[in-house]
Amino acid sequence: MSKNIEIRELSLTKKDITKFVKFGIDLYKGNDCYVPPLVFDEVATFLPDKNPAFDFCEAALFMAYRDGKPVGRVAAMVNKKVNERTGKKEVRFGNFDFIDDMEVSGALLDAVAAWGKKRGLDYMIGPMGFTDMDHEGMLTFGFDELGTMATIYNYPYYPQHLENMGFEKAAEWVEYRMTVPDKVPDKYMRIADIVSKKYGLKCAELTNRKLLKERYGKALFDLINRAYDNLFGYSPLTDKQIEYYIEQYLGLIRLDCICVIVDKDDKLVGIGISMPSLSRALQKSGGKLFPFGWIHLLKAIKGKNDIVDLMLVAIEPEYQNKGVNALLFSHLLPNYIKNGYEFAESNLELEDNTAVQLQWQYFDRRLHRRRRCYGKAID
User: What is the percent of the chain with per-residue pLDDT over 70, rounded to a whole number?
Assistant: First the structure.
């Protein structure tokens, strides 16, 4: 490590975490593709008394300084629950940002390795968060594309640094941008009709957010746990986390951007959650709600917007690959068309998850971003 680089471990206090979060935002100042997080939301992620993930996770935040000036940051995390499920001894790294200097990136990852080694861990993997509800995956393609609030943006030199340090691919995700059609594709309508009649399924009528939260809130996240259980690095959500995410997310969503599919007994079978893109609004707000950031966000949610973000789709395992996705989008697409959305962002999909990618086969689409999770044994 260069004598000019100092690595400091920050305390998990609001003051230090805010410093950590703001470094990431400052590094991308003026970049038209970077989408800042909501600062208060990002800070809460690392506050042990706010984020229920700390019930089974540990974390440390490190910042790199050169001549007293911040030049990089990284979070080290261990998800004990996932390590127990998989039998692995992995330390995760995330929120990894740095200037284009191998000494800086190397010193930060050395700090993560040392922190992990002290806890008996022998492998580093990232970028990842505490759970799948956090940001994951380093951008490797699509650096000139506007990011989304659900994904990481990074400079092109980031993956080069990791590969130069001997990190190898552990997982890869793809992202698509679809053109919203003028009408629901006929094939979707036919499949949706067949599926609805064959299995007795329907789209539940959502009249208000309170109904959504009370009737389907917990069932929704329980469904996510079942549907995503076998995905890469998945960490099942606890009851405390489910309550946390119900309060955090379900109050923000437009009801006409959600589809809840139930069977004849009103049991939840599938869920599709989308929302108008907040990318430009977050850029205008700089990640701050006050004094005027909330106005930009409100306009993005309720006003004119040409992009809709597909946040998640989850189908009960016994109904997967049976056309239920067509029922979801036959309900959502007319709302997208009515709202004037021209494009839909798929967000992250594992590259080998062909079943998920097949749901876009009737759309005009392009693969416009790739991202990767890297791994390396700790020496």
Answer: 99
- Residue 219 phi, psi dihedral angles, 5° rounding: -60, -35
Q: What is the model's pLDDT at position 1?
A: 45
Compute CA distances 49 → 46, 55, 280, whole Å. 9, 10, 31
Peptide bond before residue 127 is cis, with ω within 30 degrees of 0: yes
Cα 294 to Cα 320: distance, rounded to the nearest angstrom: 38
Q: What is the rounded distance in angstroms from the CA atom of residue 31 to the CA atom of residue 222?
A: 38
- Give CA–CA dist 206/216, Å, rounded: 10
**What pLDDT, on the 0 to 100 scale, is given for residue 206?**
86
Q: Are 136 and 96 in contact (CB under 8 A)?
A: no
Structure confidence by residue, pLDDT tens digits, 84-116:
999 999 999 999 999 999 999 999 999 999 999
Using a CB cutoff of 8 Å and minimum separation of 24, what contacts does 245-254 make?
A: 245/133, 245/221, 246/213, 246/217, 246/218, 246/221, 248/41, 250/209, 250/212, 250/213, 250/217, 251/209, 251/213, 252/301, 253/209, 253/212, 254/301, 254/302
Above 90 in pLDDT, residue 246?
Answer: no
pLDDT per residue as tens digits for the range 280-331: 999 999 999 888 888 999 999 999 999 999 998 999 999 998 999 999 999 9
Cβ neighbours of residue 130 under 8 Å, at least 6 residues apart?
45, 51, 53, 57, 59, 77, 79, 92, 235
Higher local confidence (pLDDT), 353 or 151: 151
344: tokens are 């839909």
Predicted confidence at residue 3, as pLDDT, reads 61
Other Cβ atoms within 10 Å of 208 Cβ, number: 9
Q: Please, which residues have CB within 8 angstroms of residue 200's CB and are 6 or more apart in sequence?
A: 263, 264
**Range from 6-15, 217-226, 286-295 carrying the lowest mean pLDDT:** 286-295
Do the Cβ atoms of 23 and 39 come closer than 8 Å?
A: no
